[in-house]
Amino acid sequence: MDTLSYKTLSANKETSNKEWLVIDAENQVLGRLASQVALLLRGKHKPLYTPHADCGDNVIILNAEKIRLTGLKWEQKEYVWHSGYPGGQKRRTAKDMMAKKPTAMVEKAIRGCLPKNILGRELFRNLFVYTGTEHKHAAQTPSVHTLKY
After folding, report:
1. What is the pLDDT of residue 11?
2. CA atoms within 13 A on the CB side of 142
3. pTM
4. pLDDT of 98 over the 60 cut
């Protein structure tokens, strides 16, 4: 019996085959987009997925200003943060957030789907979100990726 054929393969950052993917966010629901992009960043769609390693792909998201929110979320969804000072709690609705910085909503949603540890912060650096259809990663020859739903 050949015991070498039964070894479990474990990918690491150096041996993983990282690809560049372009996703068009136009008319995509924010939460569904975020969950699918998080799977691509994490590498769970690959056969050599390893939970403790960065083996996911680099993802470029275009048209971040054209995402969809369902229901009354444009007026009712609030982003809350605190400055650290007394009375420093601040709120911004989704509509105001889109007017101020369109890419922030997509980035916050995807960051919330990633692990809350050092690996999650490292995976988040593989995400690039842009408004419009132009990006600066043409040298990496990214392939167009369509989402499941």
Report:
1. 85
2. 21
3. 0.91
4. yes
